[in-house]
What does this fold into?
Amino acid sequence: MAQRAGHDQAEFPARTLQNPEVRLLLYEMKLLGGARVGERLPGAFSDVMITRTRNYPLEQVVLPVLVVHGTADPLVPFEQHGKVLGQRIPGAALLSVEGGEYVTIFTHRGAVSPRVVQFLQAVANVETDGRAAAPLFGAAQ
It folds into this structure.
């Protein structure tokens, strides 16, 4: 198979699927996505149209954000995307994964997962106006 920007397209899926946890996640995504593709198409087309602009008001984002981006992404260059998001979103945390490719959350799961957990734990413990923040997942206790 042909290479693009130093990216071996034949080796990539095999390497990614070697991790049993990633394999399960990809399988579940395939099941969930494929079963309702007809319902998802209008949203997908909307996403495509939205991504054609670069004029997002990122400076107005007020929620905690963790930007995860691989430095070796052959499709969405880090310097033009991940780095820019990290700079424009107020208070954003940027996790640049050295050598990370297009699906860094899968290909570099060992490096990404602990940082995502740390970020979510920190966000869940934030207090606002003296009140505990609402839980990120599940019902409030």
Q: What stands out?
A: The CA atoms of residues 3 and 9 lie 6 Å apart.
